[in-house]
Amino acid sequence: MSIPTTGLTRDFIYKVLEQVKDPEIPVLSVVKLNIIHDVRIDGDTVEVDMVPTFAGCPAIDVMKASIVKQLTEAGVKEVIVHVKFKQEWSTNQITDEGRQVLKDFGLSPPPKYEGELTLETLAQAECPVCGSKNTQLLNSFGPTACRAIHHCLDCNETFEQMKPL
Amino acid sequence: MNVEAIKNLLYRLADDKLIIGHRHSEWIGMGPILEEDIAFASMAQDEVGHSQAYYRILHELGEGEPDQIAFNRKAQDFTCCQFVEFPIEDYAFSLVRHYLFDMADKVRLQALKASSFEPLAALATKLAREEKYHQLHAQTFVQQLGRSTEEARLRMQSALNEAYPMAFSMFEPTVHTESLAKEGVQPLEDTLMKQWRVEVEAFLRSSNLQIPHVEDLSSYFGGRSGHHTEFLQPLLSEMTEVFAIDPTAKW
Question: Least CA distance to B34: which residue of chain A?
Answer without folding.
Answer: A139
